[in-house]
Amino acid sequence: MRAERTAYGDAVRAVRAGELDPDDAADRLIDRMTVREVLGLLDGDSPRRLLPLIPVLLGRRPFVAGAVTRLGIPGIRFSDGARGVVIGASTAFPVTMARAATWDPELEQRVGLAIGLETRARGANYAASVCVNLLRHPAWGRAQECYGEDPVLTGRMGSAMTRGLRANVMACVKHFALNSMENERFEVDVSVDDHALNEVYLPHFKAVLDAGADSVMSAYNRVRGEYMDVNGALLTDVLRNEWGFPGFVTSDWVFGTHDAVASLEAGMDVEMPLRLLRARALPSALRSGALSRATVQRSARRILRTTVLHAATREMTEPSASLVASPAHRDLAYRVAAESIVLLKNDAVGPAPLLPLDPGIRSLAVIGRLAARANLGDHGSSRVRPPSTVSPLQGLRGALPGVRITADSGTDPRSATSVAAAAETVVLVVGLDQHDEGESVVTGGVDVGILGRAFGSGPLRRPLMGLAHLASHFVRGGDRSSLDLRPSDVRLIHAVVAANPRTIVVLIGGSAILTTEWQDRVPALLLAWYGGMEGGHALASVLTGTLEPGGRLPFVMPTDPAHLPAFDSAAKSVVYDDRWGQRLLDEEGHAAAHPFGFGLGYTTFDHLLLDHSFDETGGTAKVLVTNTGDRAGSTVVQVYAADVSLHRPVAQLLGFRKVPLRPGMETTVDVALDAVPTLQRDPETHRWTARPGDWAVLAAQHSPGGWEGARPLYRAADRDATGTG
């Protein structure tokens, strides 16, 4: 049976055939729409009474905004999920931070393609899966949803996710901008100077937009005194005028819109996901002249242009529902989980390192409250519910069928030490779960006035706000109160290692965990993240040596939390500067427990910078990579630059490349270099120029502790060719 033709379908076909420009297609659709239909593009289609049902409905169907059935306009059909599709039983990939630890954009693009296919198969056309907020402090509750502390790594990985998604769905990047704390995300005001804003906290957003992102989600927080939905300086002056972004901006959900008219004028196009402020205010504002028709049509045009263009250029074939959590996607989740695991320590116990496990092992103890649990990450808006999940214990039992494996929850230390002492080797699984970190869905900062006039003032407002504040103390997740393990986990580590020195500690979590107090007593230590539905199989493959640990840290792990920026989860105002993470440790001369980019393997590598070219547009480094060990493995070539005229040079990552190599082999690889970390932006002219200083470059396996052997970043030939002075 032939599908009925619609105005929207005709527009898509005309754009696909090159017969119509997307802007003209949007204008023609707008010309056929009523005022009510045009205004309906500017907020969600669901009524406000569905607010308490959002957590349930989010996992069952797309949330739609701007559908016009009469013209066949499907609207924005929203699905969330940075680690998979939140609708139905879908593939649960490792969390974003874990995938950042792979340092493999090609692999991340494959994840994006899989998530895009599953999103489309679930009936959505829009995925808010690209979270590129910078990790300013590891106590941030939603750290697991970002790509770590570095702008270049974040930009490359976020761009790869975007390219993968866009084959099937529109890609939304979030949360714009400076959103890096959870408990006070609805209220906090971020102060930032022009240098830090444009050179640290925004470049990765621009990189993702340059990769093709269709939409931006504005953040809840304030920047320089203005909530982001009404922040024209960022939404219009930077995003549209300076960067030339042609797509549309949506609000963060429910409490992310503060003024119906002012937000539209500032450049926030769609209030999500319900008919709240705009449904009440825009019709009368348009009639009275408080809101111009041109402003309404500007946003309508952005929305329709973007949706028509994407529909005309995406993959033609509709994905089958059988792709969702398919064997191919499970295999991908397994591969990503293995590539993400970071080996932090692997000392010898006897004649050889403790890992990989001895093939002749006969007994193994698996201990810890997280060893037998499906621990996929937080339970907020990014929660994925896969059809099944493999725990560390299940993975080890599957990988070692001939080994006697004894499990203990670790809740009784005497029982745990008895089990540990009776085994040849112990795998001790400790760390965090959704109660320790994650999205805090209810916080004290919610504005109940958004629900209507009756809640905005009068007797109902005060008790409801008080209830929200009270509830915020009991919900799971939120910002972390400490970077340490739970005290019970630390006691368990000491007890188990005393009973059996052949103990491997596996850390589970979404960000940095301090290890200084107990690490010296442990011979082997891995960071396995929230590893997704196949995380247990991947961990077992790494422990047994079937696969090597492929991960490298996407953040620094300090020896002392005082070496990081101050973090107050209850702060109403904060200052974001250019001193954070590894950069702050470098500047202040603190050695890291494990530096940014660090990770061991089961073999060893040498990196040698052979040559490079570089100017203000970027460059390329040629690096000789040699596998000096006796087994196949991979390394991440990391190229850093710094102003070595400083007393303490601060390393800036310029580029990286993951390289697999067989034992004894060598290869020369090209590493693309990003110039932005070496540039400065003039706040008046917006022109980018080279930062002053004596800049040098080197290739390393993690953020360097010294600059011996580094080469000048700018060679004479490069300066002559570009006019760099």
Explain the layout of strands and helices:
Blueprint (H helix, E strand, L loop, with lengths): L6 H10 L5 H10 L3 H6 L5 E2 L6 H4 L5 E3 L10 E5 L15 H5 L4 H17 L4 E6 L19 H16 L3 E7 L12 E4 L1 H8 L1 H8 L4 E4 L3 E2 L2 E2 L4 H11 L5 E3 L9 H7 L7 E2 L1 H12 L4 H21 L13 H14 L1 E5 L16 E5 L24 H8 L4 E5 L4 H9 L3 E7 L21 H4 L4 H12 L14 H13 L3 E6 L15 E4 L7 H10 L28 E4 L4 H8 L16 E11 L2 E10 L5 E11 L8 E10 L4 E8 L5 E3 L6 E3 L4 E6 L10 E2 L3 H7 L3
Parallel strand pairs: 1-11, 3-4, 4-5, 5-7, 6-8, 6-18, 7-10, 13-14, 13-15, 15-16, 16-17
Antiparallel strand pairs: 2-3, 8-9, 12-17, 19-20, 20-23, 21-22, 21-26, 24-25, 26-27
Helix pairs in contact: 1-2, 1-13, 2-13, 6-7, 6-14, 7-9, 14-20, 15-20, 16-19
